[in-house]
Amino acid sequence: MKNLKMKAARAGKDLSQQQLAEICQVSRQTINAIEKGDYNPTISLCIAICKALDSTLNDLFWE
Fold first, then answer.
1. Range of the domain at 42
2. Is pLDDT at 63 greater than 80 in this prediction?
3. Collapsed DSSP state (helix, strand, coil) of residue 63
4. CATH number, position 30
């Protein structure tokens, strides 16, 4: 399932996939795969993404 919440939060912060990837210390391809729903990130990566986007796990990763 696509992660449109994460994509919207990233866009709201005016960050590119590359910029978010650098903040979270992963590749741009990893961020892209998460947004497309092709990759389930580890909890530590989820937390790093949430911190970078000033969001909670509930906001971005759970319904």
1. 4-55
2. no
3. coil
4. 1.10.260.40
